[in-house]
Specification:
Elements (H helix, E strand, L loop, with lengths): L26 H13 L2 H12 L2 H19 L17 H9 L5 H10 L2 H19 L12
Helix pairs in contact: 1-2, 2-6, 3-5, 3-6, 4-5, 4-6
Length: about 150
Amino acid sequence: MTPIPPGHAHHFAIADLPGPADLLADSELLAQFTGAASDGCATCQARLLTRLIGDSLTLARLIELACAITGLALGGLPSSLTSPSAPGLASPEFRQLARAGRGAANNRMLAECQRMTTDQRRRAAETATDLLLGFLGFEAAAPARASR
C-alpha cells in the first residue's frame, strides 16, 4: 500500500450518537473513513476500510447511517436494498444487514454483522459507502474498489 504522508487526514462530521445496543461506535474512525471516501482518497479509504470491517459495531453504524439517509431521501428503503430476490446493485450482505435492522432493530443488525466473515463485511461496507456518498451528493462513490 502507498504510504500516507504525515499530516494527511480526512474528516467528515458524524454525530456521536449511540448505535446498536446503545453502544458508541468509533465515530472518529467512521468520520475518517467517510471523509476519505468523500474526498476520493483511495489510499486512505482502503486503509480505513480494513479497520472498519474489523469493528462490527462501527460497521453496523455505517450501515445504519446509509439506511437512514436512503430512507430519508426515498421515503423508505426500497426492496432493492433489502430483498434478496429484488434486482439491484446492493450486495447480498448489505441487504441482509438492512433487513435485520428494519424498524430500528439495530441490535439484530449488530448480531448479524458479528456473524459475517471479513469479506462479507467488506461487501456490505462497500454498498453502504456507495449509498451514503451518493445520497449526500458526493461524486466519488467508493474509489477504494479500484485499488484492490
